[in-house]
Every structure is written in C-alpha cells, then in structure tokens.
Amino acid sequence: MKRLVYSFIFASLVGMSSCNDFDVPVTDRLTEEDVWKDETLVTGALANLYDKLQVEQNSAYFEGWDVWNVSLTTASDEGTGAFQAGDLGTGDVVRATFNDEWFGLWADTYKSIRGCNVFLEKLEASAMEEKLKNAYNAEARFLRAFHYFNLVKRYGGVPIVTDVQSYTGPEDLPALQVPRDKEQAVWDFIINEVDEITSELPVSRDANSRTRITRYGAFALQSRAALYAASIAKYGEVQLNGIVGVNNGDADKYWKKAITASDSVINSNQYSLYNKYSDKVENYQKMFLEKRGCSEFIFYREFQAVDKGHSWDLLNVPFSFVQNGYGCGQNPTLDLIEAYEYKDGTSGKLKLKDNSGNFIKYDSPLDLFKDKDPRLRATFYLPFDNCRGGIVEIRRGIYDPSIAGNDKFVTSGNKDEYYKNSQVKILGKDGVWDTGDVGKTGFYTKKFSDESITNIVGNYSEAPWPIFRLAEMYLNKAEAAMELGKSGEAEAALNEVRRRADIRELSGEVTLERIRNERRVELAYENHRHWDLKRWRTAHIVLADFPTNALYPWFVWGENKYIFTTGKAPKPNKVFQTRNYYVKIKDDDMSSNPMLGPNNPGF
C-alpha cells in the first residue's frame, strides 16, 4: 500500500534514501551497501527507532507550566496538579473543559512510521543473513504497529502507510494526499501484524538486549489492542461511515483475541508477578524501582542518569522535601484513594465517623488507613507517612472542642502561624492549604519515587517505565472473559492480581465493575485510566462535572488525636465532552491534506 500523509511530507524530504534517517553515524569510508551488511550499524538504526517510540511515560509531559494539568493522569479522575497555574489547574474558574487537541501526536508519529518503513525497505534489499533479517523485520514491524496503536486510540481511523514514498515535486502531491482508513481496519492491522511477526521474535532477550521487544511483548500489544477494539465495538458508535468506531457485532471476536493473546503471555513461563519481598507494601513499591527490569515487566523503558534520566523525583517530591523549586506533582484525588478496598474486600470508603455520626478520633493519621489494600501506601504518601527520613506532615488545622459550633475547626492563611502561643503550627508543613503550590488533596505520589536519590535535581531519576507488565495481562483477560460471560475465567485471572496484593480473593462475586476497579488501583498512575474511561465510553459520565475532592486531617487540641473531614480542593471541576473521545486532527494537518476530512465528530 503506497501511501504518505502530506501533513508531514515537508519534514521528510531530506535523506529519503540515506541511512541518516536513523541518525546512524556513517563516514565517507562506508557506502550505504556496507552499512546494511553491518549488524552493529543496523542495530544502531533500530535503536533510534526504539528511541522515537512514544510510550507515554509521565516524564514525556514534563514540559511547560501546564505540566501537571495536561498529563494523562490529571486529565482523568486519578489526580490533579498541585500548581495553581494551567488549564485544569487554574483555581479561578469553576469548570475547565478538555482541550480538543491534548495528547495529539499526528505528525511526529507519522515521521516515526516513515522511519520504520525506510528501515524495512533498506533491510529487505540488504545482504544480511536471512534469519537475522527476518528478526529485524519483525522488530521494526512491531514498532510500527505500536505507533499505529498510539494513533488509532486517539484519532480513530488514520491512513495506514506501509511503504516509503518519494517526493520529486508538487506534481506528486495529488497521489500522496490519501484518505483515512476506517478505525476497525487500523485495529485489525495492529492485531494481524502481531500474528505475522511473533514467530520471528525471540522468546527472551539476553541482558544486553533486555529492553528490546520479545515474542510475548508483541502478544502484550495484541492483548491491549484487541481489548480496546472490543470495548469500542461494544460501547462506542460507528460514525463517518466507519472512519471512527468498530462494528458492534465484532466485539466478541476481539474479546476472544484479547484472551488468547493474554494467555500467550501468561502461559509462556517467561514472567511472574513480582513477589520479592514479604512485606506487601514494600514489595509493590520496589517493583517500580528495579532499574533494570523485574520478573513482571514484559516490555519497558529504561533510564540512566543524567543524559537518559528523567525528573520524576524532582517533580513529585512532597512540599517540605523540595530541593530545587519544583515538586508536589500529581496529587491523587480522594476518589482514587477510596477506590482501594480494605484487605477483607469491603468498600474502600474511609471511616471518618461512627454509626452515631460522631467523628472517629485516631491516635495517628495513618491509623485511618489501617487494613487498607497494601498497594495504597505503596503508591501514595498518606498523611504523616514516612519520607526520606522525615514525616509528610499533612494537616488542615486544629480541631478545638472547647470552641462552640463550626469555629472548632481552626485553619489559617499563614503556614507559619502557631496555635494559642503553643509550639504547634496550625497547618502542616506539607499542607493542606488552598494557596501556593503545596499539595491540594491531602496526599502525594510515591509510585516511581526513589528515596535513594539524595540530590533531587532534573534527570537524576532512573525508575523504569513499564509499557507492558504481567498484571495487566491478567486484568485484560479478566475483563474480556467477563464481557463474554465467562465469570469463572474472569475470577481466576482477577484473583491472581488480588492474591499478590494480599487482599481477599473473590469467590462467586466477581463483576465487571470490580474488574474495572482492580485496573484502577493496580495500574494507577501508569497512564491507563485516561484511555480506559475513553474506551468504556464512561469519561463523559465520570468527568461530567468532576470535582477534585480532598481529605483534611485535623489535630484535636488537648487530646493528641486526629479527626478527618473532606472538602473540594481549589481546582475547577473537570468537564469531558463526548467529542473528546477522539482527538481533533489539527487544522494545519487537515488543510495540508484535504483527503483527511472530515475531521472527527464534533470538530
């Protein structure tokens, strides 16, 4: 299929027949033919293709003052930015709607797809040994399929480009301006590519190649893609003659494919749920700090300070631990905190009052979270949690029983104000107060945070980013099986994840909602929730007018205890509109290729 998307054509004119497309250092002593016979140079070209893969690690959005307000985490019901600035962070508006072009990556992705196509063309013509050529071919096709996954979940149907195109002058443009393929065709392309390449990919990699794709990493992509296609088929709507949407009658086919692909990974015996530490909080937390991967990571991105590091710790450290002017990052919503069940499987709703409606008084703020799912404390810093040798002191103010009425609740606009000439400050050093850039919800982010980093500066963080991990495969299988009415299979897969987490396994009580909630907590802050709400077509309901709720700890004066209230953080309500299920194709891209029209519904 000879196609090219004109919106990126001018950025692709230079070096069309050169290995410079891959930034491989080639001297005048090497001919192009020599390069494509040299495995080391070809591997370098392939490495550049990997480097351009958008895997949506949070650090990809660490740019600009909207840093926490246009991340995939804060553009869902998971979190909010502590900062006062930014689209969804601005405190001076009541409601904030989603920007129609957020998270778009049309031009850059097609440039990367073109890079894959050039690589494949040159590889095919090379004199490399056939077995090696087939293996490299499969790798490049996986990367291309991953790029299409990023495109289709954003835009629906997009042009499927599988060959390199030549541009010699304006007379070529009409042939190069091509229309979008149907959304379902793009999903099928991804799924079929995996079927065709898996036999050529290795079952595992050695230590030096550990971050390259394997056979089961490809199946993991297929599992996720099939799950998404099935969800959109069942819950979405076919529009624009199929340019967006998937045929409803094909949902079961995709659910079944998701199960088959998930089982390929699960039954491969190449991976196991991470269980290195007996303490379940420590175990879950440290899984994400294994810098060179762990038993659960199927495909992941590795980092190395400083040139290939990231800034997670700089941007997420709690307020009083800030060293270089940033921090506080993405604060979890109270809604997410309460999504974590208690270990006995009961609702995660926090117990703030007794049956008579009186405030429960706790000896320590951490006692409020006793017997909660261990993943909660591993994922977030809770009020008065340990951090870097200190305490995350989160206090809204003083509760003084000697004062009448609501005046018992004493707070302040001055973080340094002491109460009644005592040595107790009214506010905690880490919040919660409504002004400035301190955390706004009563919690901070712990997942991916590496307390061994003592000099918290930019690009010193090395925690890897899991693109695919085994827990997701179990959850994909559970969801797909439940959608097919196979509750026994769904329950068994779900309980694998719950058992590792050390919460009660379900018996005859699994529901689709419980499976979805398990995804919410197990995969929290890994940039799944935003896409899950979209593929389930529930984002416009969950985020119809979503307030960012917060937990407020109060020190009980004279009793050395704590009580808790809740409130709305000083953030605008989030408003997701139905047109935001698909990202708008930018006007510049649409105008450069009239054949791309019409734009997505609502634009």
UniProtKB/TrEMBL annotation:
<keyword id="KW-0472">Membrane</keyword>
<keyword id="KW-0998">Cell outer membrane</keyword>
<dbReference type="Pfam" id="PF14322">
    <property type="entry name" value="SusD-like_3"/>
</dbReference>
<feature type="domain" description="SusD-like N-terminal">
    <location>
        <begin position="99"/>
        <end position="226"/>
    </location>
</feature>
<dbReference type="Pfam" id="PF07980">
    <property type="entry name" value="SusD_RagB"/>
</dbReference>
<protein>
    <recommendedName>
        <fullName>RagB/SusD family nutrient uptake outer membrane protein</fullName>
    </recommendedName>
</protein>
<dbReference type="InterPro" id="IPR011990">
    <property type="entry name" value="TPR-like_helical_dom_sf"/>
</dbReference>
<dbReference type="InterPro" id="IPR012944">
    <property type="entry name" value="SusD_RagB_dom"/>
</dbReference>
<feature type="domain" description="RagB/SusD">
    <location>
        <begin position="296"/>
        <end position="602"/>
    </location>
</feature>
<dbReference type="InterPro" id="IPR033985">
    <property type="entry name" value="SusD-like_N"/>
</dbReference>
<comment type="similarity">
    <text>Belongs to the SusD family.</text>
</comment>
<keyword id="KW-0732">Signal</keyword>
